[in-house]
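Hey L., structure's done. Input below.
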Amino acid sequence: MEKILVLTHTQDDGSLPRLALEVVTAGLDLAKRLGGAPVSIGLVGLDVKAAADTLAGTGAATFLAVTGDDFAVSRYATDAAAAAAIIGAAEATVVLAPATARLARVLPGVAQRVGGRVDTRVTGIRGEGAELHVERWYYRQRMRAVMTRSQRPWIVVLESGAFAAWSGSAGSASLSPVAVAVTDAHRRSRVTGSQGASADAQTIRPDADLLFVAGAGWTKKQADGQVHIADAERLILGALDKAKASLGSSKSLVDQSGEGGTVLSFMSHMNQVGQTGATPRHPKGLATCCHGEEPHVVGWRFVNQRRAVNLDPGCGWAQGKADVLYVADAFAVVEKLNELL
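Output:
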């Protein structure tokens, strides 16, 4: 029988990232599908007791912990050593982990250390009898693959939005410490601090309820024959701030900077979504000033509620790619939206 390990880490405040709770749901669901396979939870961080207590209601067989000052921050050497030690202590055959920045860069190397295999960007996992299968997308999201492996341990790194976040009752979890010998070689990389963008400058919010997508139409000539970049920036930033939304963009808009075109000052290739960009997984999406052609909507398959604003009633969004299409001027619509917000 498979032995399932849910492996994650705590955040700076000692809590668990939302994606970790989604992976917990995946682990518990998989255990049921495999006929009651045992589930262990492995935690890495400065102090993981509070995080473990929030998962006490999962019924996990064991809570394994690697804690201490050396594991308070993200560092490849110590994180890899901690992950390998927990996998060994759990005798896990299947390891489920969230695709956080901290773990995604570590686990491929960990798979090599423990003699296993790893699959990343997984969007689904299921058990059928004794068989275990994972799903992921290939070739710019156009091809779905269902795979299985015989090699164990099998490390599976899950993307966000594939499972609901676990929200069971808390309690008091009994931690089993896992010893990891940390040497000076592990500490050669030192974290001296962290610096993040200010709240006003942040436009990429993976956990936001709404994805606001801006297309190239915002930078084109409007009804008066003029380009209104300043108004476009004011309206878009206003919507992002008031709705606490995340900003996405079509490739045609982010490419304008390289072509010498007029661009939005806060837009970068990091905001690109669609066929050649990121795959959005927000509950709601609002596309403005983009045509809804196939490259724009490839990544929208995971957005539950899709709306669009476009002056063309025959645009791609009108061909069944959006739940609601507003045939209107996006400048006027977003102005009214901001007023209502």
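The two ends are 53 Å apart (CA to CA). The first strand starts at residue 4 and ends at 9.

-- N.
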